[in-house]
Amino acid sequence: MKKLITLTLLLVVATASLAQQQYTPSEGNLKARQEFADSKLGIFLHWGIYSTFAQGEWYLHKSKLSHAEYKKAADGFYPHRFDAKAWVKAFKDAGAKYICLTSRHHDGFSMWNTAYSDYDIVDATPFKRDVVKELAKECKHQGLKFHLYYSHIDWSRDDYPVGKAGRYVTEKEHIEGGWANYYKFMNNQLAELITKYDVDALWFDGVWDHREDATPFNWQLEEQYAMIHSIKPECLIGNNHHLTPFAGEDFQIFERDLPGENKAGYSGQDVSRLPLETCQTMNKGWGYEVDDIVYKSSEYLIRYLVSTSGKGANLLLNIGPQPNGELPAESLVRLKEMGEWLRKYGDTVYATTAGDIKAQEWGVTTRKGNRLFVHIFDLKAKELHLSLSCKVERAFTFDDKKAVEFVAGNDGVTLKFDTVPSGTDYIVELITK
Ligand code: JFZ
After folding, report:
1. Which of 42, 208, 272, 346 is deepest in the core (most CB within 10 A)?
2. What is the reported pLDDT for 13?
3. Rounded CA gap, 164 and 237, in Å?
């Protein structure tokens, strides 16, 4: 008997690792990955009926409201100022190349006209408009890629196996053996999203609700990923599980931290060779919160974007739209200023890879072919030594192409400036060999 169990276990492990080895991204997928890695800036949108409470997207959990009470928000969700065209234009003008919208967050409310539930924007709100559809159409029209956030957690359905979060949600009984039903529901919704809206990427979140070690649980992700890739092979898959990527994933997500850093506490994981993406907020939270008014400055955000590029990653910068359908004025100001900066300096960011020198106190570096961009944020001296293994042929300011004096040594070059470099990002371009 014991032998049989061991054998079965071995078989399970072997099949699992076989499945792992079996994901070979299609050519179109690899092309989409490259395009994604080149795009550098995306806009994250946390928008749902939770926005009406103006207390963030975790409000159902935090408030300990009964589900029946929370649901009433749907009947009051009427974002009459929502204008997909104006939103997408603002994102495009900001220099973003894609957006990622919460199609369904942990509260389980679907922001599109799903056939698999009535708890959705068309069936349950007086607004009755499919915002996923409208944004997908506008993105296509204005040339932005369209990504969707999809939560694996659902605090509203009773077939979702209760995890770490949402335990306070009352008037809801989690049924034993609900998983099979819930899994089918998710796969139906995902297939629906990809087919109806031609989604370019899916951004999953929630695996951390059931820790593998504490509550052994099989999310059956590989089958889910395979299903997605079978419908649209070039649809990129990312998962905010805070671990090194699983088989079937096409990019790696970091929450509130640059790859390799762990200031926020979600990112001890190794950095993979997949395209990388860091998601970050402009203020504190993700979903609209009425008193979340302390925003990072445009200068900070520009430097953060450049630093993300310096790590070879993308920045997915968040906005929490208001319940009336408007984007908060503070976020619009920052989008505008980032756009102005990117129109001048975008060449040093888009389609670059991580620079030769890792992030320093003074700034970061990015590279494109034989061009190495030195981004100086904060230098106290008129000299800057760069340890490089390549040869520098020319050095000049990116802004006005004025030659920058440099002295070559055996471990790189020392740049010499007439005055101490200042500004948001003082860029020196080096032509290297
Ligand atoms: C997750 C979401 O819960 C959050 O609402 C937002 O969408 C963000 C982008 O992603 O954030 C997390 C993920 C994991 C934990 C907490 C927040 N965790 O493990 O405690």
Report:
1. 42
2. 39
3. 24
